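DM from R.C. (forwarded with permission)

"hey, sorry to bug you on a friday — could you get me a structure for this? deadline for the figure draft is monday and I only need the backbone to look sensible"
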Amino acid sequence: MTKTILGTLGVFKYLFLALAVAVALFPLVWVFLSSFRTNAEILSGAIGLPSTFSFIGYRQALEISPIITYFFNSVIIAAFTTLFNVLFVAMAAYVFARFTFRGKNLLYVILSLSLIIPMTALIHPVYVIVHGMGLADTRTGLILVYTALNLPLSLLVLRTSFQSVPRGLEEAASVDGAGFVRTFFQIILPCNKAGLVCAAILAFLGSWNEFTFALILTTSHSARTLPLSFAYFTSQFSFNYTALFAAITMAVIPSIAVFAIFQERIVSSLTAGAMKE
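My reply, with the result:
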């Protein structure tokens, strides 16, 4: 009787997982298939297979909007944002995880509370600061803004992951005469690869998919990012859904690929942090 119940529960578990996977994959598969359908097919029915698999939509997407330029802008901005965010925040997170100083908890709470600030509340002050620094409509301005926006989450992830590193490693390094800088870069960082990768992926995805500040702070092709290219496919009088879905497919593939490749490290880092807490 017990084995029968356990077997039934096992079946329901796998059915639930299969349903969750189907729900998660359906939008991606739908967008991908729609990129091969014509406008008439899309308007005649939202769900359906394309009559022929043609890359006309992808060619039109490249012709209608400067996707290539925006794509390379996104790559450069996301790469530098990730590098700066992880490099500088890792140092701060290590100090929060290992050292005690006056105002430590208060400062950490203030930085953590910034996670709950609505994005719309930051639009005006960020706009004023960036324009005041003369960095409007530049990739440098977006890099600085995205680095600051991703700082609280990276600090939270890295601080927790640093706490999971055994203190014995630092004590052994101190006995061998290693200073703070050498211990941090040669011992602590290599032992915390999972946390660093997790913070880097979250920062990359956050900057790659960001739309609001990219729209407000840029006006020319030289600095605009990939999410802004979607505006070229819709207007008041014309809609090219085939090209739009093709552009969406090209935009989401890099982020999905990055997450798929490093998902094990992300999950292991978050799990280790949860167990530590």
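R.C.: lifesaver. The two ends are 39 Å apart (CA to CA).
me: no worries. The chain has one domain: 66-276.
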